[in-house]
Amino acid sequence: MSSHKNASPAGSHTQDDLQVPPVSLVALPAKVTDSSSSDSSYNPSPRSASVSSLDDTPIMNKPLRPGVYVPSVAFFRENEDLDLDTIGKHAVRLAKAGVAGIATQGSNGEAVHLTHQERQQVTRTTRMALNENGFDFLPVIVGCGSQSTRETIELCQEALASGGDYALVLPPSYYKPSHKPDTIVEFFRDVADASPIPIIIYNYPAAVAGIDLSSDVITELSKHPNIVGCKLTCGNTGKLTRIAAATNAASPADAGSDFMCLGGSADFTLQTLIVGGSGVICGIGNVAPKACVKIVDLFAAGRLAEAKKLQVIVARGDWAAIAGGIVGTKSALDTYFGYGGIARRPLPRVTKSEAAKFERDFKEIVELEKTLK
């Protein structure tokens, strides 16, 4: 598909990386094919698929471009049913802020609390809201991780049918002690072989029993024609640097190979960009998307001193989101933007004193957000 498929393995790695011996990847064709370009300024080739996301006609996967992607929150009514109206409106708010795309079914989207049908409803609602408001060009990334290869592939198929363009996939972890050294590599190869949409590897050790994919493993997997990116929530910027260099990752300045090497948190957005990464997928973007996007814009304009000052504020705001979790993020949205609501049980309800604390913790970044156009 692109030059990153010929990248050589990255160099050194840390001891906490999951080390897997080199595995020969079978050069199978991707389940999607290249097609015509979009009119985006960053313009890698989009991919066409044989099944429609919303009807029975062929669809075009929206190109990924460097920037900020937001793992959107799933909103619920008081009875814990999905609040589809708010889900759609929130997606449009993010799009208007200038994000490069939206991810559904992530940890911020409470994917582990949703049925397959509800996952499809969230993604379909997001896609349709974007289309209806002039943002049909924005890609939707869908979390498709599961414990079995079979169900992961099924989730990828459902993601396409619901309007998703890419699948974000965690490694399986429940039977971690039974994994052989190359189990994880085989898992990603098998999923990528069968998925009708391209795969983004999701490295998030805290969510998968400490499994931490090394730069060598991710770089080797990047050669698969249907694996087009990675998200590194591990926060290891050394690993990110190695992968970005080895894959010739896309950046705001250069489309490179079109492989997307993404940080997993807004508190190292500038660091990601400086070492050649593609951007971030960040939860604080639900609260302050303009602030997150502004860091990328300042970096691209060469205004590093301003970008650094903004990064400091965003990092403090991101820590509020990390410490408060999804309930804190929803509380901040309620306080400052008039919507947010509850998380599904067994996540707790926010008390008045907790809501006041979250209001204080998010105050600085929200005040910044409201000054940005």
TrEMBL record:
Specify the superkingdom.
Eukaryota
A Pfam family: DHDPS
Chain intervals with Low complexity compositional bias: 34-56
Q: Could you tell me which InterPro entries the record lists for this protein?
A: Aldolase_TIM, DapA-like
Show the GO MF annotations. 4-hydroxy-tetrahydrodipicolinate synthase activity
Q: Enumerate the CDD domains for this protein.
A: DHDPS-like (cd00408)
Q: Where is the composition biased (Polar residues)?
A: 1-13
Region of interest: Disordered: 1-63
Q: Which SMART domains match?
A: DHDPS (SM01130)
Q: What is this protein called?
A: Dihydrodipicolinate synthase
Q: What is the lineage of its organism?
A: Eukaryota, Fungi, Dikarya, Ascomycota, Pezizomycotina
